[in-house]
Amino acid sequence: MDHKEAQKAPPLVQFHNVSYSLPNTTIISDLNLTVERGETLVLLGESGCGKTTTLKLVNRLLTPTSGEVVVEGKATTAWDPIQLRRRIGYVIQEGGLFPHFTIARNVGLVPSLSNWDDARTSERVREMLNLVGLDPNRFAERYPRELSGGQRQRVGVARALAADPPLLLLDEPFGALDPLTRASLQREFAELAARLGKTAILVTHDVREALILARRIGLMHKGQLLLLETPERFRASDHPQARAYLDTLNVNGGSA
Amino acid sequence: MSFWQFLQANWPELLLLVRQHIVLVFVAILVAVIIGVPAGILLTRYRSLRGPVLGIANVMQTIPSLALFGFLIPLPFIGGIGTRTALVALVVYSLLPIIRNTVTGILNVDPNVREAAVAMGMTSGQVLRQVELPLAMGVIVTGIRVATVIAVGVTTIAAAVGAGGLGVYIFRGLRQYDNNLLLAGAVSAALLALAADFLLGLVEKQFSVDAKRSAQSSFGRKLALAAAVVLVIGGGAVWLGRSKPAGTSHIAIGSKDFTESALLAEIVAQMLEARGVSVERRFELGGNLPHEALVVGTLDLYPEYTGTSFTAILHHAPITDPRAVYTLVKQEYAEKFKVEVSPSLGFENTFAILVRGDDARRLNLKTISDAAPQSPRWQAGFGQDFMSRADGYPGFSKAYGLKFAEVREMDLSLTYIALSSRQVDLIAGNSTEGRIATLDLFQLADDRHYFPPYEAVYLVRQDSLTRVPALAEVLAKLANAISTDEMRRLNYEIDGNKRDPKEVVKEWLGSRGF
Questions:
Q1: By C-alpha distance, which of A139, A133, A123, A181 is closest to A157?
Q2: Cα dihedral across residues A142, A143, A148, A150: positive or negative
Q3: A60: contact with B, CB 8 A cutoff
Q4: Beta carbons of A125 and A107 less than 8 angstroms apart
């Protein structure tokens, strides 16, 4: 709506008539979606609705059964998957950290895979840890199991940002955290994304999270995109699925 | 002789056997890891291969080790007798735990972690090397540890194919009923197993992710520790690195796995050595291994009995004329196997049907026919050999109408002690066995002349005779050189007086002026 000025380059991610099915079930059917540069798009839906699959189609962990996913003007199937993935930050629940790597090695993973020299990598690691609010002197040489859930999640975000990718994919990144930690991390992430101007696709089943973080909310149900709206218009929607989500806020007396 | 004295007297030999044992296990495990870990990795990539390959590895491990050694003997390249065969069998046994644990270890890596690795843009090789293998390493090392402990045990069987190791003491101890030998072999093998278990346990701990506290142990350091353990174990390999001198006057002499056979082989060995021929001793081979090894050329010579060749190898029905048996064996061996039969050594070693001396006196038993009426009240104990061969138990019991209350199949050398300690009442021993007199056993006369004549001879390959002229000279000297009494005495020097066979042979050769 109000952010269409800077869109000269092609959209970062586009889904064209994308379907994805397994032998007996259809996970996603006929999905069309455009992700604009700089926006945070939140895919909202219950588990099994296809939102995680949508995410994995972007970094080619999966390829569409029909249709195509276009990233930076090129279909994912035309990309070298390794190059594609190194340009996309990926954050999953609990961070998906490597238990046998130190925090520094976890964060520095993509830079070192991309053959950055050691000095540059370790400088970047310190910068990233500072960015997500972890003191490098305290945390760099620890192992993931020595950190709290919230700290691990911060490391996960730091790792995804380390190679400065244009796009971030986040799969329920705050799902396993206690409510207080979750709230503060959500707030920090919103600020961070705005400050860095990153494009992000975030998947959640938490409508409150969607309303806080999203520039646009895509509501998914049984493999289809029902609704794609800004948070304000999502709140006002009279779509029954959207209303069902919004009602949970009222029942909980939510403050969002 | 106390165990302590035994150790002091035999320390150098025990040490040699321990080294052989370690080298066998070490090389086998090394090869099994080199094959097994990549195979396991492959199985995680190709799901459809998993069932068949693990199935085959499983079946291979259920093959009894002695049987596996038997299968391997006649095979070219991997078979034969000696170290190579033993290694092949050991590798076969070690593969399963290593492959299985590699598969399990890699498949058990948290799928979220693997997915994160792929999503970070790691190539599949990087995922394997940087994520899957390090995380699976603890489980893989456990597999190697299990395989090693199993291999230490199985290696004791390797002595049966002449590969050496602590099994030599265990087999010899069983045969000679010598607890010192048994203890030295078994305790050393057990200690080796415990040591291997402990060392690999240390390595395993290093690789376990759970044990990680802080930055103290990097993956590289763990590999360094593993390498150190490998070096410690492998150090033994250096000792055994020397190879045997080869050449035209080199002879491999085998023997069967009982005292007399080894003694006869040693006699030829020392006589050849005195004539400047280098001798490789492959003694104490089980079952028909010496014959098979002679035919394929791994052995040049071994001592045999004409009756055994006649019935067990050539599969003729037993006959009783010694000259006829000798002539037929000589003729058929030359035609079928290109093997010469030496002149008879001058004594026979036939099956001796033995009872306790006090039973013989009490019941007034002189012949096997005398004993037949007692058989329904008796238990009999027979060696595996006697139970299975054509001239053994089936024909024997029919010829004399024997119906025992029970027949136990056991190791031949144990039957003597089983008889004297009243575990069984009748056995089929060897007529030249030294312990017949010392244990007060009585040999019943073969009054129906059932057993064929078993004249002691040497079997020698024709091509060996041409290659090493000294052989023919030695064999001619030994014609009719040993009487039955003399053989019994020599056996007793070893089995009864626990003397070193080499010394006994040296002494005897000296006394005969050979």
A1: A133
A2: positive
A3: no
A4: yes
Look up residue A192 and give its amino acid: L
Contacting A with CB below 8 Å, chain B residues are 110, 112-113, 115-123, 126, 130-131, 134-135, 209, 212, 214-215, 219
Residue A100: list chain B partners with CB under 8 A: 134-135, 209, 212, 219
Name all domains of chain B by residue range, CATH numbers in brackets. Answer: 3-239 (1.10.3720.10), 250-348+461-512 (3.40.190.10), 351-444 (3.40.190.120)
Instruction: Assess whether pLDDT exceeds 50 at residue A154.
Output: yes
Query: In whole angstroms, what is the distance from residue B17 CA to residue B283 CA?
Result: 14
Q: Where are the beta strands (DSSP E) in A141-198?
A: 167-171
* Structural domain spans, chain A: 8-87+166-256, 99-165
* A residues 85-104 lying closer than 8 A (beta carbon) to B: 85-86, 88, 90, 92-100, 102
Instruction: Tell me which of A83, A93, A98 to substitute to probe the interface with B (most B C-beta atoms closer than 10 Å).
Output: A98
* Token pair listed for B503: 């010394």
Contact between chains at B122 and A92 (C-beta distance less than 8 A):
no
What is the distance between the alpha carbons of residues B499 and B340, in angstroms, rounded to a whole number? 32
CA B135 to chain centre: 40
Q: How many Å lie between the alpha carbon of B212 and the closest alpha carbon of chain A?
A: 8
In chain B, which residues have their Cβ closer than 8 Å to the Cβ of A94? 112
The whole-angstrom separation of Cα B31 and Cα B95 is: 9
Exposure on the CB side of residue B318, measured as CA atoms within 13 A: 20
Cα end-to-end distance, chain A, whole Å: 23
Q: Which is nearest to B478 in space by CA: B216, B226, B189, B269? A: B269
Cα dist. A224→A41, A50, A227, B6, B61 in Å? 16, 8, 9, 84, 53
Average pLDDT over residues A11-23: 93
Picking from A59, A142, A143, the nearest residue to B119 by CB comes out as A59
Describe chain A by its helix, strand, coil percentages, rounded to 5: 40, 25, 35
Residue of B nearest to A91 (CA): B116
ipTM: 0.88
Q: How many CB atoms lie within 10 A of CB B176?
A: 21
Reported as a single tens digit per residue, the pLDDT across B107-121 is: 999 988 999 999 999
Point out the residue among A86, A90, A113 whose CB comes nearest to the CB of B116: A90
- For chain B, percent helix, then strand, then coil, each to nearest 5? 65, 10, 25
H or E element that contains B328? helix B322-337
Closest CA to B24 of B167, B144, B120: B167
What single string gives the DSSP state of each residue in B202-264?
A: HHHHHH-GGG--STT--HHHHHHHHHHHHHHHHHHHHHT-PPPPPSTTEEEEEEESSHHHHHH
Q: pLDDT digit string (tens) for B28-79?
A: 999 999 999 999 999 999 988 888 988 888 888 888 877 777 777 667 766 6
Rounded CA-CA distance A159/B32 in Å is 39
Closest CA to A16 of A59, A95, A74: A74
B379 three-state secondary structure? strand
Q: Which residues contact B295 (CB under 8 A, 6 or more apart)?
A: B337, B339
Would you call A141 and B215 a contact, using CB atoms and an 8 Å cutoff?
Answer: yes
Q: Class assignment of domain A8-87+166-256? A: alpha beta
Angle between helices B167-176 and B3-45 (to 10 degrees): 130
For B130-163, what is each residue's pLDDT tens digit? 999 999 999 999 999 999 999 999 999 888 777 8
Cα Rg of chain B (Å, integer): 27
Are the CB atoms for A58 and A13 separated by under 8 Å? Answer: yes
Q: What's the one-letter identity of residue B397?
A: S
Q: Is A59 on the interface with B (CB under 8 A)?
A: yes
